[in-house]
């Protein structure tokens, strides 16, 4: 079977989680929390004032306790650790706690926080980032620290992808990349290399992905940022724009709680707001169209996204290719002289399962996430039946994946798609 690179790319979707940016130096959630702990343990008040530090210590202690309890509740089948989005969500819930129905019952659950709020209120206005203690914490983390944590320091790991595009200067294909990441890793690298990704904006104004004729100055990457971007802002009119393209008179209308305009600690409810709603619709549409879904650096700890991915590959011959060096239960690892490790072949990087272990065990792991009430408020609505035949695990990182699959004009990538297309032709001859 002769599969061209255009066929292979046009039939594939690439989905990025936080791990896809790890090689750039962007911090993962664990690194963000460690940096936060250092800042609140320092003697200076450069980032946080005293009540803010004390409030964060209290909240982090609560998250640590809750994570350990959740781990024990699952008989340690899952290892829960606090993450930065949980902290952001907790801060927002405490800030808005009077709006929750049980507040008359639970209002006294943390007298310490009330005392800290009073201490914060007594500070000079020059020492505050917002009117309230938890409003200030929310703004500092989202508007200041998130930018620091997601600042890339090394973009060379993307070189194989650049060289891949350069191998086909006149070939007509576009790579669809959907990302949960807010960072600017792909934009910075590819814009510097004259492969400016198309993100749905023209001159800073949102046009969406229904645009039939993409402007010529955009390269061959469609980048759908499902959770927003560090360079997006929302104005008080509800319009959202690229910040660096704002006209001066618009600066005064930026909503500071949406600077940047990202989904961070809000859960899935924000998906009903533009552009997130339209982006999610595009994601669903492309999942239906594509046969090969490459999921890179994603933890699968978001059942809302999982439902879309699982539905896309259940019941037919599609493939969900998971690229992640840390994903899956311990039983997928093989005992070696250096301890238990993921083993994989040298060509396609597919996992070598230990004896009596198969992709069914990988499917069960995803199913357990879908059933777990700690990941979802309503797990009974999640899709739980996972088609094991659709799963492939490549237990490697983004850098290794790109170096292997996209060097030499994407030779391994094309061979990978060709192999599965041949199998599909045999299994579904008509």
UniProtKB/TrEMBL annotation:
One Pfam match: SIR2_2
Source organism superkingdom: Bacteria
Protein name as annotated: SIR2 family protein
């Amino acid at each position: 079977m002769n599969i061209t690179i255009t066929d292979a790319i046009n039939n594939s979707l690439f989905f990025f989680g936080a791990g896809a940016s790890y090689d750039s130096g962007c911090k993962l959630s664990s690194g963000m929390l460690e940096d936060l702990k250092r800042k609140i343990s320092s003697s200076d008040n450069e980032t946080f004032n005293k009540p803010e530090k004390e409030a964060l210590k209290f909240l982090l202690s609560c998250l640590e306790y809750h994570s350990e309890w959740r781990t024990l509740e699952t008989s340690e089948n899952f290892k829960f650790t606090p993450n930065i989005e949980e902290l952001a969500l907790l801060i927002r819930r405490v800030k808005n706690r009077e709006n929750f129905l049980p507040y008359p019952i639970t209002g006294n659950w943390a007298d310490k926080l009330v005392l800290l709020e009073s201490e914060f209120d007594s500070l000079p206005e020059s020492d505050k980032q917002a009117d309230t203690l938890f409003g200030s914490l929310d703004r500092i983390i989202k508007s200041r620290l998130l930018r620091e944590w997601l600042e890339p320091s090394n973009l060379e790991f993307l070189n194989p992808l650049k060289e891949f595009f350069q191998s086909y200067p006149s070939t007509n294909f576009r790579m669809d990349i959907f990302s949960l990441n807010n960072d600017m890793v792909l934009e910075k690298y590819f814009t510097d290399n004259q492969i400016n990704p198309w993100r749905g904006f023209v001159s800073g104004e949102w046009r969406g992905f229904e645009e039939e004729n993409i402007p010529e100055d955009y390269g061959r990457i469609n980048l759908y940022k499902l959770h927003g971007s560090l360079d997006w802002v929302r104005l008080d009119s509800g319009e959202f724009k690229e910040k660096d393209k704002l006209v001066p008179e618009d600066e005064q209308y930026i909503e500071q709680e949406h600077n940047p305009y990202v989904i961070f600690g809000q859960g899935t409810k924000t998906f009903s707001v533009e552009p997130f709603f339209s982006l999610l619709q595009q994601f669903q549409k492309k999942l239906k169209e594509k046969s090969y879904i490459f999921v890179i650096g994603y933890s699968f700890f978001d059942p809302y996204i999982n439902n879309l991915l699982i539905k896309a590959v259940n019941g037919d011959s599609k493939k969900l290719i998971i690229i992640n060096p840390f994903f899956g239960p311990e039983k997928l690892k093989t005992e070696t002289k250096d301890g238990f490790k993921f083993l994989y072949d040298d060509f396609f990087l597919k996992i070598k399962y230990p004896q009596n272990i198969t992709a069914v065990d990988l499917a069960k792991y995803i199913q357990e996430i879908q059933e777990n009430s700690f990941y979802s408020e309503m797990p009974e609505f999640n899709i739980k039946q996972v088609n094991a035949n659709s799963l492939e695990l490549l237990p490697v990182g983004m850098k290794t994946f790109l170096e292997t699959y996209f060097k030499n004009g994407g030779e391994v990538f094309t061979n990978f798609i060709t192999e599965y297309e041949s199998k599909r032709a045999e299994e579904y001859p008509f």
